[in-house]
Amino acid sequence: MKAVVWHGLGDIRLDDVPEPTIEDRYDAIVRITTSAICGTDLHFVRGTMPGMKEGRILGHEAVGVVTEVGSGVRNLRPGDRVVVPSTVACGTCSYCRAGYYAQCDNANPQGSRAGTVFFGGPEAAGGLDGLQAEYARIPYAHVGLVPLPDTVDDAQAILLSDIYPTAWFGARLAEIGDGDTVAIVGAGPIGQAAVACARLQGAGRIIVVDGVSDRLDLARDQHAETVDFNAEDPVEAVLELTGGIGADRVIDAVGVDAQRPSHGPAADALREQAQQFDHEKDEAAPAQNPDGDTWVPGDAPTLAARWAVRMVAKAGTVGTVGVYPPQVQHYPFGEAFMKNLTLKLGNCNHRRYVPELVSMVATGRLDPTPLITRWTGTQDAIDAYGAFDRRETGWEKVALGVAGDGSVAPGLGETAGTGTATTAGTQGGMAAAGGPSA
């Protein structure tokens, strides 16, 4: 089968690899109809998340059709259409049963203290092959796979695999309540999804901070207030917008690959910290293999964290879902301490939120599809990775159509797209670079 495979830093390829097989009684094989590229995938290629094994299939987002189940999978059968949550959990340990699926005691072969397992990641994260392939083996399928109604099409469902659950989790971590003013640092896919999630959880005002113009445009389409960090100091802007108080809640949706402002007052203010950021970059990505302006690690690994702490109000809450791998060891704890902040962070407990989000889309309360700004065939996946990595205009979220047979084509969800929390935009903005299927 065809799959996107990691061979080294700056080196990913579309390879022919063996199809997966059932290895455990709780496994299932899923034929992937739609996958997607996530910012986390870029960490592996840029070098900001080490520990990848050569030959690993990438990807942790997928929608598909079950083709085979192990003897222990009693709730699914071949032909069922499903969304695959990005993290893997057993469903029986104390953590899973308390809803902390990302900290499952049994999923990680390195033991109960090893932490989160997700598809297509490094050995420390379970060493599982990913979902940017024609078929995938799903461990603990009786827990992990979430069935889909035909009223939720592939374009909607693919965003429920990781993007919207993570954004929902980020809003929960930030403790958003009715009427809160929320600042979201980062207008990539997670940050965009966090606008709708924050609104659904009661936010009164939403301010989005980024430096890429088309991402800010998409946030404005959702009626968020926007701050361009290349045009103004984002901390000062948020303070001005909040009467000098700061945001009640902040979501850090950026993580380790944060970029310094290229110009403007924020760039001027950070020049004295250039040496510190250079040190942090070398610490976060000790090995790098850039190709021109592609596969370049972020040049300010803790900048989003610093801005988040500075723009939140005293006694406020910062929820961090942007990825910070273990080698990132700097955080503005002193500033956070002196402001009595609550800091919450970590990997999303996907399986806790995916079923509810599926129901929200099926009933029309939420329609995530306008976040998919590019839909390409699998044969174009490597080029799509490069465009997404370079943050090229229009490459906000990239879906990979793997196979049309068994999928529900974009726009055919019968009732979704009517809710007041719908992400604004039109499917007319979704550019096809190979069509919705390969």
List keywords for this structure.
single chain, 438 residues, alpha/beta, Quinone Oxidoreductase, Chain A, domain 1, Rossmann fold, 2 domains, eight-stranded mixed sheet, six-stranded parallel sheet, 17 strands, 26% helix, disordered C terminus, Glutathione-dependent formaldehyde dehydrogenase
What does this entry look like structurally?
It contains 14 helices and 17 strands. The protein has 438 residues and is an alpha/beta fold. The chain folds into 2 domains: 2-162 and 349-433, Alpha-Beta Complex (Quinone Oxidoreductase, Chain A, domain 1); 170-345, NAD(P)-binding Rossmann-like Domain (Rossmann fold, 3-Layer(aba) Sandwich). The strands form 3 sheets. Strands 3, 5, 6, 7, 8, 15, 16 and 17 form an 8-stranded mixed beta sheet that branches. α7 (213-221) links the parallel β10 and β11. The longest helix is centred in the C-terminal third of the chain and has 13 residues, at 350-362.
Secondary structure layout plus pairing:
Blueprint (H helix, E strand, L loop, with lengths): L1 E7 L2 E6 L11 E10 L1 H8 L9 E2 L4 E8 L11 E4 L9 H4 L37 E4 L2 H4 L1 E2 L6 H4 L5 H11 L7 E5 L3 H12 L4 E6 L2 H9 L3 E4 L5 H8 L5 E6 L12 H6 L3 H11 L18 H9 E9 L12 H6 L3 E4 L4 H13 L11 E4 L3 H9 L8 E4 L29 E3 L5
Parallel strand pairs: 9-10, 9-12, 10-11, 12-13, 13-14, 15-16, 15-17
Antiparallel strand pairs: 1-2, 1-4, 3-5, 3-7, 3-16, 5-6, 6-8
Helix pairs in contact: 5-6, 5-13, 8-11
